[in-house]
Design a protein that fits this description.
alpha+beta; ATP-grasp domain-containing protein; D-amino Acid Aminotransferase, Chain A, domain 1
Length: 340
Amino acid sequence: MVWSRTNQLIAAAAEGLGARAEPLGREHTDYFMRLSLGERRAIVSKTRSPFLTQVAQGLANNKHLSRELLRARGLPCAEGVLVDESGDIHGPAVRELLARHGRLVVKPNWGNRGVGVATDVRDLATLARARDRARGLDLDEEVLVEPFIAGTNLRVAVIGGQAVAAAEVVRPKLQVGRSAEAQVAALNGDPRRGTWSAPSLCPMDQIEAEEDLAGHLEVYGLELEAPIPAGREVEITGEELEVIDRTDEVHPEWLAVAASACDLLGVDVGGVDLRGPMAAFAGPPASAAGAALLLEVNVVPALHLHALPTQGRARPVFAAFVAYCLQLPGAPPPCAVVGV
């Protein structure tokens, strides 16, 4: 039996707390695990706690609706236009967004792990291709179009209503003049990248070029084997180049924004994505003046980013997760009531 990286980290954290982590049934499944300590028991699904409701998970997964609700409660959320299966990607709302910002991001409204997300979309032809790809990957064929926000991808981990860690996630960008295939091969030579077939505690994963990158490149009119042309910036969404711990550099009010977003959506264990200049996160949200914004709340929050950063201090997020799920003394109480 081989646990995934996430479950290996959960099991190690449980052991460190004197608890047990064991399979739920006779046949191995990586999706469920039983935690126990004395009379305390909890069944978890990766980093989903036993207190998460289906309503809260579904609400958080709907990026457009959850953002609308959070914005109505005063949180600094990015704007966006929802295009459903009958909507026109070239409609006036999207055209106005493109004219006003010049660069857009297109993503599945119910997306996960950055799959189907196209950044740096600058023209209508690319916009249409990005729409088609995102729609095909979305649960309800819905596409979210939003402005491209320059700056840093900041992920904040929230456990039991408390923001416990923050990390800058640097995405790989393909360089001009070399093929995507060659550049991905070079990236995969990094010993810090592990494989899905043999899970380890490597902080990053191998990039499967044929699995998702080929379709991603088609959005920009590019191919895996062809050199990246001048003037084109292609970010490999959903992958990491570096993960830098920023917990001690983020202003407490931004951490409070992340915790509030989770609380309002009923998400007790979440990863909140913020984006903007790193300098904006050093001060309170009011001082950022729209330069930094909240993008989304993720229900399966990739806690390994904080436990295994490539730079900076590792944070004990899995110990906090286990303690919360088992409701050990000192852990925050369950908080999975939708409050918007």
